[in-house]
Amino acid sequence: MKTKCFLLMLLFASILLSCGGGVQRSQTGSDNEAQGPLDFSAVWMAYQDNVYGYVGDNFERFYFLIDSMQVDAEDTLLYHVWGKYRIKWDIIDYEGQVRIIDISEKETDFSPELEHYDAQVYDLISKWELKSTSICIREGETINGQMASTFYILDGKAVFDDIDLGSDPYCNNQFTGTLISPEYGEQKCRWGAFRIPDSEDLDIGAAEFSPADEYLGNGWWSYREAYREGTEEGWKYEKRSRWFLGEDSLPRIPVQVRPFVRSTEKAPVSVKELLAGFRFGMNDKEYRTAYDKLEKLECDQVKLIIDNTYFHASDGVGYYANGQLYYKSFSLNLKGINGEELTKADFDTLATYFKGVYGSDSLHHMYTELPISEYPTHHWIKDNLYFSITWVPEGEVENFIALEYINGPVYWEVMNRKK
Q1: pLDDT, average across residues 233-253
Q2: What DSSP line would sit under 287-325, residue for residue?
């Protein structure tokens, strides 16, 4: 115990003097004490695949990643950090500083592992100041707050404390702070390893983190799908899709719907024409030509006529394989010349219309809602085509209806290639 107290005295002395002394090796030379200043980078960068977070009062999912950390050359209580975070579809690069502000011994229950290594667990409090380095996307944002971590010293190194990893309330690297955005204002920002601080309403899990149904639409649906599927492949997809917004962000068809949709995998490509001049197999130039022919409206919207109804629509996205379009989406935002708000009745009317186009029997049509689908969704298959419409109440600004067209044979080829 004397050697451990000596370590702490040295650390606190370095804090008070601001000379960056860090935790030093004791004169008794125990193998498990630090050999020079401790590097805490490994503590903060551990288990990053299991870091979850949120911003705002609606628990919008916040993805956080540390790419690299470097201790300051003169002050070993100060670290420089680089990485990225994601909110919705925006991926933002950041840089910043982390300062150690307190270390204390932690009272712990008996652990054979700690007894074996003659190790003591410590609480580590650090102050984080991050700023966005991205241009145009959420430019000028800052994140400030404190992180509470636990570690122990093994072979002269600071080790992330995962000794009680299997226990129900286990957590580590718990960050509590504020995100300040010139565009979106001030929001609370939380993240942590395995659990998130201040998330009682969001996290309803007992043995592990589990988001509540009412917040699935705020970015948590892919986590719920992977959790429900419970396969290694499902978790790989969920983790991979966090930072890649291209083909890896294609909608992952719910487990319960896949047998219905899978028949498109080897179907003949008989359906090519989609909507408003778009078609499967067109190249990027042809896509641009089709888009340019659409009547343009305010706020980067276009005019679409479906079943003799005037819609204000967002163009959505298109994905290509071998230079040919195989995925196309639209978002219907308003209706009528004057831009009236969409209602659930409009969604139901569209569903009736598309039943007449693609079929209403069980071989061609399927309807899902929670817990299978995040929102009410109608699914259709017709040879190679998988088509869906989804009712999304109270989206970013107003209700909207999402339309998705997928060329099944190409889609499944892409998905199989990414396993």
Answers
A1: 69
A2: HHHHHHTSPEETTTEEEEEETTEEEEEE---EEEETTEE
